[in-house]
Amino acid sequence: MDERSALAALAETVGGAGDDAAVIDGLVLTTDMLHERTDFPAGVSRYTAGWRSIGASLSDVAAMGGAATAAVAAYGAPEFVPEELDAFVDGATDVCEAVDARYVGGDLDHHDEFTVAGAVVGRVDDPVYRHGAAPGDGVYVTGTLGRTAAAIREFEAENADRGNTLFRFEPRVAAGRALAPVATAMMDSSDGLARSLHQLAAASDCGFEVSWDRFPVDSSVDAVADGEADRRELAAFFGEDFELVFTAPDEEVAAVRASLPVQVTRIGRAIEDGVVADGEPLPDRGYSH
Amino acid sequence: MDERSALAALAETVGGAGDDAAVIDGLVLTTDMLHERTDFPAGVSRYTAGWRSIGASLSDVAAMGGAATAAVAAYGAPEFVPEELDAFVDGATDVCEAVDARYVGGDLDHHDEFTVAGAVVGRVDDPVYRHGAAPGDGVYVTGTLGRTAAAIREFEAENADRGNTLFRFEPRVAAGRALAPVATAMMDSSDGLARSLHQLAAASDCGFEVSWDRFPVDSSVDAVADGEADRRELAAFFGEDFELVFTAPDEEVAAVRASLPVQVTRIGRAIEDGVVADGEPLPDRGYSH
């Protein structure tokens, strides 16, 4: 069973597991596991690992329209090197501070492979789910696409500093809160923009019509992409970016746009069914963890 | 750096990391990582693994005197076998139901070694910390000691059913809440009773005087122990039980005892300094993860 089938099976069993985070009793709770082999390529600093591990869960809270309160991490490593641990905690602390949350510690465990599970709790009064998009809504994305894909290329090229910079991201918690009153459906783009659109479409029972030339591709992608096809691959399919993908009536987005702390780009609109880019079906593929 | 030194270093950096769980803004948040090599010996079912992974974090909430609200798990495994995943979710769900909390899903990750990180959020108005014990307080423990040690022996003897039964435990959330108004200091016994007493003593700047014959040793220990020295080892040093160890004025414990959902045993009293059992120093050793 692959991860998507397994997650679908989980969602049938457990309420809320089909969204970015679980909402219960006014609280939002989420966890993400990252580990060396698949999530931390050579060159990733422990500071960046701390930032990114906690950031992934903060992004889930953002996707529900919640405020982030506190984060913990379970840190598994073959050995506990004080400088590495300090750097990890610094990264976790800094990403929390960036979104007005607090990193409050966690668990340590001897593990053959460097493995981190972050968990974040937040509060949410009026959660935004993946369902709720309706034909006619605009479909939008925050920030830019492809930073993580570009980071991986930079790590491969042994440009570790550049890779680490691109690998850290600001979780869109403030934007998510500002968008919550107007967004009809929302999720983060961690599986890639294309797959996110398919997931929103499936949950909302609608479709999307988008334009490739509207996608806000990060300038870092242009620096590493090998032609237009590769550029599209990195921006729309690679995934592991943590931007918000959401739908909303266009006039309502216009009304809150000035209060948003980040650029928001309209990439198309919701339709009755099908997910198409410039009239062609947009493949349902993306990052599989 | 061993785990205790690393945790101590973490505690210096991060507020709250020195206690069983972090308390912030009326919420209590905690995480624990368990994995195959050190936490799940051969014979442990996925149902038990789900129960125990989440139970460990529920126990941390109990140790703070909190109410548990919701739990998530990050589940890492080489492959996702539907029956295993279902059994894990059932175990996680059932341990939550046992303490009036809800299991609300989590994350899946391909991982070479079966690895689980549970996280639990709860609410706490008046948290109980490890500091606060004072000379003259009684020192108490809930339930019985040594079940996990006995379980390991049963797994080694290939008595998997017996091992699994002993490996599951009821997190003492209800007891923790009932004790919170009277306990002066509290933690769970996951590092073993002996080490827990040393940790309470260090945090509270006091000592303890206890009696071996008052320790509530589980009957399962008698079934596997090889003589009295081994029995003591399993009951007081092996650890990974999840009972509450706490201090309180004796008359206040007497006043709430009838309302407690579990047996509570007075094993001695707090003194000025030193941790002694029957007049002999009690070694500060126990479970290291």
From TrEMBL, chains A, B:
Binding-site residues, substrate: 39, 240, 287
GO BP terms in the entry: thiamine biosynthetic process; thiamine diphosphate biosynthetic process
Domain of life: Archaea
Entry annotated with the keyword Kinase: yes
Annotated binding of Mg(2+) 3, by residue: 20, 60, 188
Residues that bind ATP: 106-107, 130, 190
Pathway(s) the chain acts in: Cofactor biosynthesis; thiamine diphosphate biosynthesis; thiamine diphosphate from thiamine phosphate: step 1/1
Function: Catalyzes the ATP-dependent phosphorylation of thiamine-monophosphate (TMP) to form thiamine-pyrophosphate (TPP), the active form of vitamin B1.
PANTHER family: THIAMINE-MONOPHOSPHATE KINASE
Note, other: Reaction mechanism of ThiL seems to utilize a direct, inline transfer of the gamma-phosphate of ATP to TMP rather than a phosphorylated enzyme intermediate.
Name under which the protein is recorded: Thiamine-monophosphate kinase
Organism, scientific name: Haloplanus litoreus
Gene: thiL
